[in-house]
Each structure stands twice: as C-alpha cells, then as structure tokens.
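Quick one: co-fold with orotidine-5'-monophosphate.
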Amino acid sequence: KPASDDALALEFVQFSVESGVLRFGEFKTKAGRLSPYFFNAGLFDDGAKLGRLAAFYARRIQASGLEFDMIFGPAYKGIPLAAAVAIELARLGVNKPFAYNRKEAKDHGEGGSLVGAPLQGRVLIVDDVMSAGTAARESIALIKAAGAIPHAVAIALDRQEMATEVTPDGVRDVPYSAVQYVRGQLGLQVCAIAQLSDLLHYLQQQVGGEMAEHRDRVQAYRDRYGVA
Ligand code: OMP
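Sure, here it is.
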C-alpha cells in the first residue's frame, strides 16, 4: 500500500479510537475468539460521525478505482453504512442505485426480503468488519440468488485474521483471511479503509503505558490468529 493510503488508514484508526468505536479490553468475536480489541461500527452514532465515516469509505472506494453498478447494504449494520456511502458518493458525482435486505422476509405488502433498487449488475457490498468471513459469504449468496454479480466489498476494517470453514467435524480455522479468500477464491475486489496492521502501526506511534499494553495484546492476538 502506498504511503498516502496508510495516512488515510491511520487517520481513520485515530477517528475510530476517539469516537469510542474502536475499543480495547476483552471481547468475544462472532467466531468465538477472545479479542483484545473490538470495532463497533454501531457507535458511529450521530450525523457528524456517520458523515465522516461515509467520507472515509468514499475516499477509499474512489482511490481503489472500483467499478460497480450498484450498492448493497447487508442487514442490519450494513444498511445505514451503505446508505451513507451512497449519499456521499452521489455528492462526489457518482450516483448509484442502492438496495438492502431484511433479515426476515415480509409476508404482506410488497413482500420479499430485498428493499430498494433491483439487485442487478456488478454489486458493491458495503459492510463494517471482516473477521472470519461469515457475513461476507451470506451477502454473496444473497446477491447470486437474486441473479446479480457480487463484484466488490468495501469494509471499514479488515481484521486480517484466519477465516473459518465449516466441516463435518465442526468449524475449523484456515490459514488465510476472509479478505484473502474473497479476493483469491471468489474473485471479488475488496477495499478496506484500514486493517489490523494499521491499528498496530497506530498503537506503536502512541506514547504512554496503557497504549503499549494494548499494542502488546493486539500483537499477541495477531500472532495467534493473524495471517501474513
Ligand atoms: P465475520 O462474519 O466472521 O467476518 O465477522 C464480521 C462481523 O463480526 C461483523 O459484521 C460484526 O458483526 C462482528 N465484529 C465486529 O463488528 N467488530 C469486530 O471487531 C469483530 C467482529 C467479530 O465478531 O468478529
């Protein structure tokens, strides 16, 4: 990644820490891992923060040169994210159709589980975090089932940790990340505003014992679950 991209990533990590979205402590992830940090995008919880977040996504999407026909926000957390990103991109002159799903299909009224523009063409999925890849797999299946093309994923944070795989004996870790899998095996483009290595870089730049402790714990987590 060029240095200018790193600057955007570092600025984003700082914004996330200052907003209380990126926290340090002990958290259990969806994949059942005990993590020393957690990124809760739901805490971008006022208009100014959501607007700034959307601007980070839009800058990263535009810098990556992604081409796509529409935007999809997976329920629940992806819905406001994708909506905010669609608004910001339109403001920058890139106006794209936007859709999202319901978690429970509606059995009355307009029916179905999709809301917004018809799902068609090359779809850009906007989501919060990719850890083990479960959420991404669900979105991709949904887009394919609707006859559209899962083309790219934009996320705020790539945790750069081992993906999981469901086998007859249960769930096991695999030696590549969800982002690497989605890129390499599924052929989608993935852009992340920041990744775990940017968080470590940020923590290394901070002074003070507390931050050094966070850095050591995050590094230990990366040694245990991280990928190259
Ligand atoms: P995967 O589906 O395993 O890739 O995990 C991604 C999801 O985990 C996100 O959409 C969140 O629901 C949740 N998550 C976070 O929001 N922030 C984190 O720092 C870590 C997770 C997580 O559980 O792994």
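If it helps, The helical segments are 3-18, 47-64, 78-91, 134-145, 178-184, 196-205, 209-225.
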